[in-house]
Amino acid sequence: MAEEQPAVGVTPSHEAEVGGLGVRRALPQRTRRTVGAWCFVDHFGPVGADLAAAMQVGPHPHIGLQTVTWLLEGEVLHTDSLGSEQVIRPGQLNLMTAGAGVAHAESAHENASGAHGVQLWVALPDETRAGPAAFEHLAELPQVGLDAVTATVLVGELAGIRSPARVDTPIVGADLAVAPGDAAIPLDPSWEHAVVVLDGAVELDGVDVAPGALAYLDLGRDEVAVRAAAPARALLLGGAPFGEATLIWWNFVARTRDEVAKARDDWEAGADGFATERFGTVESPLARIPAPEVPAGLKAR
User: Fold this and answer.
1) Within a domain: residue 257?
2) Which of 77, 99, 156, 239 is most buried by its number of CB atoms within 10 A?
């Protein structure tokens, strides 16, 4: 380990609502748009069955990104324009690649007793962001023990353990189940990383981090010390700095306002019957979500 590690920078999430469920949005932030290619992090719950049932996100489109869904509690039904219909449960991974265009809907499954999880986006690079859409569900994921931490590798590689999930840029995403005690999580010093606490509280290099905050770990780190006084759960995200300017607006990740406006118009072209040439049809009883107007001054950052 290097003698001096960059400081842990903790910034608060902001409150939002998605599909009737309150979320804590850790990314994007005004001062930080991405961590590696990770560009969106919504942490929802924990809530009981009554509030979980409010999670009803009707058909909506995506371009230029991957959606990553990870649950700690509950069951969510995913339906998309590729014909996928998949219930996701805790410990399983849903990964949808939007490419040039895909649409999907998500809702709490009728058997869900509660809801707690995280919805993430990964910005796609120029090589694949205009490519075909795809969906994969992984019922089992690899784990690695790191002293007081059991890490489940969602995407990428951690401590020599690699997930079979598709990756289009150099990234890592791992669920950290932290037992009381100490651990050291190895990091790639050429990457930036962040930790989002999902349950309980942890110390990162002696800095307290609780749910509702993003802890940023800058370049130059080869590990981070993790400690918890009681069982906790956290999400480690990291990757090579994303060198492409991104424009994140509504459900789109693009490069220019023209790309966003075209995607918006293509989605609205299917307003009467859901189906569009670009985004297809989602077989869902939920109401289609219309796109807002694109702001005039929108530009990549």
Assistant:
1) no
2) 239
**CATH number for 191:** 2.60.120.10
> 131: which DSSP letter?
S
Instruction: For residue range 27-69, list pLDDT tens digits in order.
Output: 999 889 999 999 999 999 998 877 777 789 999 999 999 999 9
83: left (phi over 0), alpha (psi -120 to 50) or beta: left
Torsion of CA 93, 98, 104, 107, to 10 degrees: 30
Q: Quick check: is 70 in a domain?
A: yes
pLDDT for 1? 43
Would you say 154 and 174 are in contact if contact means Cβ atoms under 8 Å apart? yes
Domain range enclosing 185 = 8-239
Q: Which residues sit opposite 152 in a β-bridge?
A: 143, 175
Alpha carbon 166 to chain centroid distance? 14
- Which residues, listed in sequence order, are joined to residue 201 by a DSSP beta bridge? none
74: left (phi over 0), alpha (psi -120 to 50) or beta: left
Residue 137 lies in a domain: yes
What residues contact residue 16 under an 8 Å CB cut-off, 6+ apart?
A: 22, 23, 24, 25, 42
Q: State how many domains the chain has.
A: 1
For residue range 177-200, what is the model confidence (pLDDT) as tens digits?
A: 999 999 999 999 999 999 999 999
In a domain, 269, yes or no: no
Gap between the Cα atoms of 55 and 58, Å rounded: 10
Q: Which residues contact residue 65 at a Cβ distance below 8 angstroms, ignoring those fewer than 6 apart?
A: 39, 40, 98, 121, 122, 123, 124, 129, 252, 253
